[in-house]
């Protein structure tokens, strides 16, 4: 497996520090609001990485934190007249609702900031003792950026560039504009904890360093998060952890790309801000998860509802093919007849290509392309009445079904029973189109009776009425079924 390492600026072979044990830390949410499409992308990307590592035989210790005390949480609590802890717990609960719908597996451990204050105080004191941090008269503690020679190595920034834009805000007691807060003195009415420097709370960057050290030996094998976190958050984590421990913080840094909305930056002020709930009110969770995997995780992803509709067509196409495979495999009689070896070899190659795509920096877009090639192969066999009835056809279908189950466990999609999913998808599309399923059923029953009475004019008229409702009718030996045009 090869991963793009932000620290090295290139892809490199992935080798854990300790044989098959992988320690992976991914920055979680700040729990003050509902999760948006950007959270969905990061969560899906690292969920697939987690699944893939386990699939490849690694024992993964996956750590994902919750920031449950922060300026944003305190501000939200003040706005609604609640305690900061109430706000954090509410939105941690809402986070789980969204993640469960997106089929995100739970990490090994999910530490909360407020449950690790002693570890953060200890780390801060070690930095002070080593001359990398200082306390101010008011009780703030700052990290001395210039005391750490490697500052900027992760994000590729240098001290001179940073210095030109740095300022000391009124009331701050920094020795240098570049220094960042490890501990913040409590303001009136804010939550606080006792510390050697007085009552206060930890700075945002501190928690991930402290919790990484608690739940994993350092260096971490993988540290991940959104591209927006590479600076200053991850850069500051590197500085404080390596200054305190004297050893590397993480060997591989993995960052997912930004999400844009119709080619623009997502922003509430632009009116293009979408929560996960906004999207799942209209589309099935699996459609959103599939869409998020159609681009390489490091590439920018342009979200639009039109793009989601295209993704939905892809999901439907694959589930329809899986349903057809189930239909074929349910047949009782198979013929011993020649089956072209080149078709088996073609599947061999596609299996190899899927594995290569996933091993090449988690290329889910490429992997999905190979899945469609497998589906096309199944379609060619299903269209040939001799091949699909042969024992060779049965074996190929069975192998494709097994492959898809294996790949689905990595990607977290295509795990549903196909016929059941297709019905749910149809009803979801009908709801968006304003189609009443009960009315469709009523018209189909009337059409069936008209056909039974040989009243074909009435039958055709009902079919035309359904077509005007954007309903497509399929006549089968078991009766008429319908879908949304």
Automatic annotation (TrEMBL):
Keywords: Aminoacyl-tRNA synthetase, ATP-binding, Cytoplasm, Ligase, Metal-binding, Nucleotide-binding, Protein biosynthesis, Zinc
Domain Cysteinyl-tRNA synthetase class Ia DALR: 353-422
GO molecular function, one term: cysteine-tRNA ligase activity
Residue sites binding ATP per the record: 268
Motif ('HIGH' region): 29-39
SMART domains: DALR_2 (SM00840)
Catalytic activity entry: tRNA(Cys) + L-cysteine + ATP = L-cysteinyl-tRNA(Cys) + AMP + diphosphate
Motif 'KMSKS' region, residue numbers: 265-269
Enzyme Commission (EC) number: 6.1.1.16
Major location (coarse): cytoplasm
CDD domains assigned: CysRS_core
InterPro entries, A to Z: Cys-tRNA-ligase (IPR015803), Cys-tRNA-synt_Ia_DALR (IPR015273), Cys-tRNA/MSH_ligase (IPR024909), CysS_C (IPR056411), Rossmann-like_a/b/a_fold (IPR014729), tRNA-synt_1_cat_dom (IPR032678), tRNAsynth_Ia_anticodon-bd (IPR009080)
Essential cofactor(s): Zn(2+)
Subcellular location(s) per record: Cytoplasm
Taxonomy, superkingdom: Bacteria
Residues annotated as binding Zn(2+): 27, 208, 233, 237
Cofactor note: Binds 1 zinc ion per subunit.
Family: Belongs to the class-I aminoacyl-tRNA synthetase family.
Subunit field text: Monomer.
PANTHER family recorded: CYSTEINE--TRNA LIGASE, CYTOPLASMIC, CYSTEINYL-TRNA SYNTHETASE
HAMAP family from the UniProt entry: Cys_tRNA_synth (MF_00041)
UniProt name for this protein: Cysteine--tRNA ligase
Originating species: Pseudodesulfovibrio methanolicus
């Amino acid at each position: 497996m090869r991963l793009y390492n932000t620290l090295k600026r290139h892809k490199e072979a992935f080798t854990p520090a300790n044989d098959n044990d992988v320690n992976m830390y991914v920055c979680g949410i700040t729990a003050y609001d509902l999760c948006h499409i950007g959270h969905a992308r990061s969560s899906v990307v690292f969920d697939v990485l987690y699944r893939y590592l386990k699939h490849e035989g690694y024992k993964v210790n996956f750590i994902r934190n919750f920031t449950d005390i922060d300026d944003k949480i305190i501000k939200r609590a003040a706005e609604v007249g609640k305690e900061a802890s109430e706000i954090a717990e509410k939105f941690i609960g809402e986070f789980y609702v969204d993640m469960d719908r997106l089929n995100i597996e739970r990490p090994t451990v999910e530490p909360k900031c407020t449950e690790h204050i002693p570890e953060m105080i200890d780390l801060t004191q070690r930095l002070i003792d080593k001359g990398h941090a200082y306390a101010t008269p008011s009780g703030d503690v700052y990290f001395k950026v210039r005391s750490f020679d490697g500052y900027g190595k992760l994000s590729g920034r240098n001290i001179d560039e940073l210095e030109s834009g740095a300022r000391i805000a009124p009331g701050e007691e920094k020795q240098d504009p570049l220094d960042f807060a490890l501990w913040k003195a409590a303001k009136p009415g804010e939550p606080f904890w006792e510390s050697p420097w007085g009552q206060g709370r930890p700075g945002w960057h501190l928690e991930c360093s402290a919790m990484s050290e608690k739940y994993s030996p350092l260096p971490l094998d993988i540290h991940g998060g959104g591209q927006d976190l590479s600076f200053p958050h991850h850069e500051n984590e590197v500085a404080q952890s390596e200054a305190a421990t004297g050893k590397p913080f993480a060997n591989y840094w993995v960052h997912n790309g930004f999400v844009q909305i119709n080619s623009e930056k997502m922003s509430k002020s632009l009116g293009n801000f979408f929560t996960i709930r906004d999207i799942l009110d209209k589309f099935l969770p699996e459609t959103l998860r599939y869409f998020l995997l159609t681009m390489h995780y490091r590439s920018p992803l342009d979200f639009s509802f039109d793009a989601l509709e295209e993704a939905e067509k892809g999901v439907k196409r694959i589930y329809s093919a899986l349903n057809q495979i189930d239909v074929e495999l349910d047949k009782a009689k198979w013929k011993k007849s020649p089956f072209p070896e080149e078709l088996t070899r073609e599947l061999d190659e596609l299996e190899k290509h899927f594995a290569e795509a996933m091993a090449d920096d988690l290329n889910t877009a490429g992997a999905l392309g190979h899945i469609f090639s497998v589906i096309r192969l199944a379609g060619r066999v299903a269209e040939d009445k001799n091949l699909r009835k042969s024992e060779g056809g049965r074996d190929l279908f069975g192998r494709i079904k097994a492959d898809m189950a294996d790949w689905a466990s990595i990607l977290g999609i295509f795990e549903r029973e196909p016929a059941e999913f297709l019905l749910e998808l149809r009803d979801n599309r009908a709801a968006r189109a304003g189609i009443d399923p009960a009315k469709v059923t009523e018209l189909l029953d009337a059409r069936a009776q008209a056909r039974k009475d040989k009243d074909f004019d009435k039958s055709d008229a009902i079919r035309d009425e359904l077509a005007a409702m954007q309903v497509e009718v399929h006549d089968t030996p078991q009766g008429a079924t319908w879908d949304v045009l």
